[in-house]
Amino acid sequence: MAERLLTFDIFRYNPATPEIPPRMQEFQLEETVGMSLFIALNRIREEQDPSLMFDFVCRAAVCGSCGMLINGRPGLACKTLTQDLGEKITLMPLPVFKLVGDLSVDTGVWFRYLNVRTEAWIHTDQVFDPKGLEERMDNPTAHRIYEAERCIECGCCIGACATANMREDFIGAAFLNRIARFLIDPRDERPAAHIFEVVGTDEGVFGCIGLMACDDLCPMEIPLQGQLAYVRRKMALVALRGK
Amino acid sequence: MKWSDAHISEVLVIGAGLAGERVAIEAALNGHEVTILSLVPPRRSHSTAAQGGMQASLGNVAMGYGDNPDIHFEDTVKGSDWGCDQEVARLFVELAPVAVRQMSHWGVPWSRVVAGKKTLPDGTEIEDLAEKAGLIAQRQFGGTAKWRTCFAADGTGHVLQYAMDSVVTKLGVTIHDRMEAIRLIHNGQTCYGAVALCLRTGTLRPYLAKAVVIATGGYGRIYGTSTNAVINEGTGMGLALDTGVVPLGNMEAVQFHPTGIVPANILVTEGCRGDGGYLLDKNLHRFMLDYEPVKKEVASRDVVSRWMLHHIHRGFGVDSPYGPHLWLDIRHLGAEHICTNLREVQTICKNFLGCDPTESLIAVRPTQHYSMGGVRTNRDGGAYGLKGLFAAGEAACWDLHGFNRLGGNSLAETIVAGMVVGEKVADFAREQSLSFPFALVVEAVAAQQQRLDDLRSHLGGSEDVFALRRRMEETLLDKVGIFRTGPALTEAVATLEDLYQRAANLRLRSSGIGPNPELFAALRLPGMLRLALCISQGALQRTESRGSHYREDYPKRDDENWLTRTLAYWPPGAEMPELKYEPVNITTLPPGSRGYGEMAITGD
Ligand SMILES: Cc1cc2nc3c(=O)[nH]c(=O)nc-3n(C[C@H](O)[C@H](O)[C@H](O)COP(=O)(O)OP(=O)(O)OC[C@H]3O[C@@H](n4cnc5c(N)ncnc54)[C@H](O)[C@@H]3O)c2cc1C
Ligand code: FES
Do A146 and B153 touch (CB under 8 A)? Predict the structure, then answer.
């Protein structure tokens, strides 16, 4: 591979110095074999501008920290290799979320708020018996729950979502999927109607206008479109049967 | 400092991984007001990265029938090379099944037993009985006599952390993320809280509480190449060490995992070998058969890592631009198995190696992975030396793991310790009244503010934080790794001492204003170097080999002189740690043979 000189065009803004307006800044870097945006951004920080803000934690595409707009498209920076991009790479923070600085955004507070709002925990009257055996579950059911539970709350689906960009309260694909996860789980004793009180609105299931950008770019490849359809189907049933 | 900035609660938990959140839950269920601090949102803690599983002797699967806490105990003690506290190990093995089942109650979608006859990769026929169908499934991990590791497909840590955090959310526990504890507030006898740095703004805030818990995970990143998340910089252990009165236990006990991928150093789970994967050399020879005819690839991690490196030193490594490596082969496990139970491995290979492990070999090499050492506590999780300070999880040396941790025992430890220590913390907080020596708080905040101001003023100093840090990482990796010798360790100590002095002389290249990563790195570096010195000095003084600590010049375990735990103190103003030793608590299983790793390592 011929060595390329990459140009990074990076969004800059430090809320602690509001007198300096947001801007794009260019950095150049020689590409190395197997270079990811994790490696590239750390090199830029260490060699060129140590004030550059961005977030990585696992650097293995499992923790959801590093979502950003890569050439305009939301994605995880740690698993994006420069070899798959052109010589000019534009990096912007994810929209919708509050900006911490440069490429760093506050996804944590956003997701926590929605976890509270949708009561995303198992609701049960069963009391745990430390001396008893675990309740049984068949493996395919465990797998279906697991599939929905794989969401890493990276916010890419939210950043890509037309509705979330316009409507502050929209719960987005991530939480429609989360709702599916609890609907599938036999341990959650909430009546479906109870769940739909929270999500059967324009901020919930009906907010989605079906552009489905989320489905294309979920880094975990969760079938978000299918999950949304499942939640809507369940809802229709509840409406019909009235329970 | 404004007093209105002070945040007061009954229990302050530093760290929102599995251990911290489990402690917080126990304290909250006991009616206490709890605050958790974390560098990142809880669900991004390093615990989420664990793929493989959690050990508990349920005996649910064919290869685990007959398992019980006694066997788990024996495996753990042998794994630790008799370095662990046997009372702690006993408590742990009894509670691990409860922990696994409670996590199920809280929503973890554990993989479940499917009844029927099966053939293992080595041709063994087994049958999972119908009466066990639907119970929690278990897989094999290294160093265990039974299949005992409970798992949720390929993402055990992720689902455990999500379920744990859902309970924390439900209980309404206060969480302040992007908030880094940088100093404990104490008077040499009692701990009153911590000074924290807001990573959103670069400002300080005191957190006051009756009880403070350190649950900050490991320090892998001081080694540079590590399977750990980039936030694992050991700052929490540093908090305890900096008090001057709380020791760190067994810091020289550093685990290297056999299968970090080359060159990205990302872990592929022990499940690969547990499920039947092979290690191959450049001639595609399955070399572990030569060194460990019985346990083969599933001996304990310290042993497998050592044989791998030894085999590479003998010239059987595969050459690459990133140095020699070996191969992990899981192709024969079949696409179906790989695509479900090892899917994460497949994804990692695709993303970071550009290969598909159902068809190709995976380039691997032993990589820094886990810290057995940490804040030394008693059996209740109370830190030595300071009232009101506790520790749990990877940050603690409770001491379940001694000189080598078994795979799957760490997730289990975080939760079991969370239960046990959480209860003790709750009891302590109940009996304690809330009171603070005000001057002490003001002083502690002022001292930290001074550090920030000094760095931001760019007066004096000339050293670059990233350059010193690189040097520290290289030194540890080259000289305090899998094979250790007196001369190399002596050099490491000298280099690190020099770096430590230079780290008092840092100069920022940037302004340091706001949430500035260079400022944050500069604040952390001296503490990281203190840990590096504890590790190196501990390794130099320990003239024997035990578990992961292997001295080429002292290749034998020496129970007569070294059945001890190292305690490293850092007296105020000192330039080196002060080492003391305490005996290891042996209750029922006297030192003996581990049943693996016995063959002498000799050059040829
Ligand atoms: C890749 C990988 C795979 C693994 N797989 C397994 C496995 O399959 N089975 C197993 O048993 N073990 C496994 N382990 C080990 C296990 O995952 C960890 O030991 C365990 O999760 C540690 O949990 P913890 O709660 O102690 O710390 P962590 O999960 O690391 O959490 C630490 C917390 O402390 C916070 N923190 C740190 N410093 C500060 C500070 N100064 N101020 C405020 N907050 C702070 C962090 O933000 C974080 O919330 C694996 C480890 C790795 C690296
Ligand atoms: S750093 Fe964890 S997903 Fe990218």
Answer: yes
Say what the pTM is. 0.96
B394, B49 contact by CB (below 8 A): no
What pLDDT, in 10s, does the model give residues B529-585? 999 999 999 999 999 999 999 999 999 999 999 999 999 999 999 999 999 999 999
Q: What is the pLDDT of residues B172-184, one digit of tens each?
A: 999 999 999 999 9
Nearest-5° angle of CA A95, CA A100, CA A106? 60
The answer to whether B183 is a known catalytic residue is no
Pairs of CB atoms within 8 A across A/B: 193
3-state helix, strand, coil in chain A (%, to 5): 40, 15, 45
Helix (H) or strand (E) holding A101: strand A98-101
B549 is annotated as an active-site residue: no
Question: Residue A54 is encoded by which pair of tokens?
Answer: 């961005």
**Token code pair at residue B76:** 């753990």
Query: pLDDT (tens digit, 9 = 90+) per residue, A218-242?
Result: 999 999 988 888 888 888 888 787 6
Quickly count: other Cβ atoms within 10 Å of residue B334's Cβ: 12
Fold of the A107-240 domain: Fumarate Reductase Iron-sulfur Protein; Chain B, domain 2 (1.10.1060)
Residue B604 has pLDDT above 60, yes or no: no
DSSP letters for B119-148: E-TTS-EEEE-GGGTTSBPEE--TT-SS--
Distances (CA, A) of B208 to A218, B32, B36, B53, B174: 41, 14, 12, 36, 14
Q: Do B351 and A51 touch (CB under 8 A)?
A: no
Residue A40, Cβ density class (10 Å: 0-12 exposed, 13-18 middle, ≥19 buried): buried
* Residue with CA at minimum distance from ligand 1 atom 15: B410
Q: Is B192 helix (H, G, I), strand (E, B) or coil?
A: strand
Ligand nearest to the CA of residue A154, numbered in listed order: 2
pLDDT grade for A192, boundaries at 50, 70 and 90 = confident
Instruction: Report the C-alpha gap between B404 and B141 in whole angstroms.
Output: 14
User: Quick check: bond before A223 cis, omega within 30?
Assistant: no
Give the per-residue pLDDT at B603: 52
- Please give the distance, rounded to the nearest whole angstrom, from the Cα atom of residue B460 to the centre of ligand 2: 37
The SS3 assignment for B150 reads: strand
Domain spans, chain A: 5-105, 107-240
Nearest by CB: B152 against A57, A115, A146? A146
For residues A234 and A160, give the distance between their C-alpha atoms in angstroms, rounded to a whole number. Answer: 26
Distance CA A15, CA A22 (A): 9
* Owner of token pair 């010195």: B533
Distances (CA, A) of B189 to A172, B192, B207, B388, B392: 50, 10, 18, 9, 20
The answer to whether B188 and B366 are in contact (CB under 8 A) is: no
**b/e for B97-120, b at 16 or more Cβ within 10 A?**
bbbbbbbbbbbbbbbbbeeeeeee
Give B8-59 pLDDT, tens digit per residue. 999 999 999 999 999 999 999 999 999 999 999 999 999 999 988 999 999 9
B390 class by beta-carbon count within 10 Å (0-12 exposed, 13-18 middle, 19+ buried): buried
Q: Which residue has the tokens 């850092």?
A: B570
Q: What is the pLDDT of residue B445?
A: 97
- The answer to whether residue B525 scores a pLDDT higher than 60 is yes
Residues A154, B41: Cα–Cα separation, whole Å:
11
Class of domain A5-105: alpha beta
